[in-house]
Amino acid sequence: MQLTSFYFKSNVRRKLIDPLLQRNMKRFGGRFVEARAAVMTEVDNLETIRVAAAAIRDRSLANLDSYLVAFEEQALARGSQVHWAETAQDVNRILIEIAQSNGVKKIVKSKSMVSEESGLNDAVEAVGIQAIETDLGEYILQLAHEPPSHIIAPAIHKSLEEVAALFSENHHTPRQTDIPALCREAREQLRPHFLSAEMGISGGNFLIAETGSVVIVTNEGNGRMVTTLPRIHVTITGIEKVLPTLNDFSTIVRLLTRSATGQSITNYVSMLTGPRQEGDLDGPGQSHIILVDSGRSRLLGTEMQEALRCIRCGACMNHCPVYQNIGGHAYGWVYPGPIGAVLTPSYVGLKNALDLPQASTLCGACQVVCPVKIPLPELMRVLREKSFEQGLRPWHERLFIRLWRGVANRPRLYALMTQVGVRVLSLLGGKKKLLHHLPGLDGWTDGRDMPAPQGKTFRELYRKRRS
Amino acid sequence: MSARDNILARVRRGLGLPGDIAGFERPAVQEYIRKNPRGPRPTYHWSDHVARFQERSEKLGTSVDRVASLPEVPEAVARYLKEKALPQKGVVWHGLHALEWERAGLMLAARGAHADDLVGVTGAFCAIAETGTLMLLSGADSPAAVSLLPETHIAILDVQRIVSGMEEALALMKSEREALPRAVNFVSGPSRTADIEQTIVIGAHGPYRVHVVLYGSVYVQ
Predict the structure, then answer these.
(1) What is the pLDDT of residues A223-237, one digit of tens each?
(2) A43-294: which CATH architecture?
(3) Beta bridge partners of B93
(4) Min Cα–Cα distance to chain A from B171, Å
């Protein structure tokens, strides 16, 4: 996927004044938040399960090499073919090799965020193979030539009217006016593709080391279609997705679906182990699994390792006041919201996504709802520190921080400057005690007034009270 | 070095483990998989699995019927299809083909599902009370697409095979089967999507309707 995270600030500026996006994001508002809150009341020991889920993920990561090898051994024993991809380009190369050596002309895909990382659809189309997204949201975006803006609800930024116009234009059908009719239309358009494609590609929510299974957690049924009907099934997923056992999966799925869509369980949970067996009437003849590193292993053993616990539920973005206002595209890569603000700089390089860790008020909502307790605000703070240390922040910001440090290390000077400062600001605040502009801090005062100080510093007031 | 070796070497370096590839399957990992511990879960407040299964199923949009014994199932299925004005023909799992479907006025073929089948009748390996979930195992007599391609999926289930949670369902499978089938499908209600304006629509790519016919009775010892 085209990386535009470097332009985060100008992306945001554009998104904030896009009336259509703003209307659609307002609608998005709190629906996921409310649904999650309602369904979590079923879990009377949520914290106990969160701790257990985080421990399961930590166990997987701390022994990742062993669990990957165990997974590979089981998967091979069941007749799956396991491929290892070091980079996003390798993913595309391996996939195209499998497709071409099997004469594949058409691929149906269910959602795979990892395939977005490598821009897989463009790569296969460049060699003359058709790739069709079948998740409704992804299908809409493929018609609109847009990337997803949310990891579980990719077309969250689109309205009914926009979808209706896209369908009518692309399907040459009368324009629909209600959502069920649009869903029916997508079903009827995509059904023939499921039946005629030679290859199905899916992501993998989890890999199970115990059994060599790929687990996918879905609602629409397209995930089952692409893994059942075409003669070749390819799973593309990250190396960090391995879980030790099916019991561990049972623990985690209770939090995954509730955190994601507010469902106690999704419509379908499919555990797929190897290709079609002797006597089977359906299922793919070949099962391939592409295990993708693409930056993940670099996070192990660093402060960022906890980010690899992520089970891709999307709760952090659903609850993020920044995401709720700017939508997912502004983040400029595959993973938006708080987890994207941590993963994107880690995967593509901090200098290419410099402002993402700043895209947070550190309010902590993401950490509170994360089912595997990733300390997202802390990780963003670590990235902020790193970007300063590496001299990546703009010169005026670095200068300001140096000056501030100089002053803050000298208590008397600090006291004097704050005493002068509050008095000046108080005067500037006028009768209403509001500052409309602050030189050098326009970004802050453009959208709101700063309340002026009321006259004395904290230290002065404290001293007065003590005396 | 292959991509595999490079990735594993990087992982091991990151984790601060010695770099050689040989003999690195740590006993602790094998031991954990062998022990296969179960994690914590929410308190189960119900005692009647059947009632809980029915309540949760209906919440998901699955309708539930109950008959006394297996031979009564075809009549119950015919009744449901008639009530909903659905076609009286479709496809059925081999294992259920011996039931007297024709006497109930139904034309069910025992084969894999075709694209134009409108009704699919399956069994279920077991079901989960906690979430109202059916567990279906693929196999020669139980093709996976029968519960997927038709617009209406009807599942026949022995009430004695409703277990409490996913862990119990998996344990039951391990105790009765030598190996996992190609596909274990947990089905919880008709397919759905909320990808347009977060509005839930029932019937995405899979069935529009899921109907469960429970038969038999639970023996209390």
Answers:
(1) 999 999 999 999 999
(2) 3-Layer(aba) Sandwich (3.40)
(3) none
(4) 9
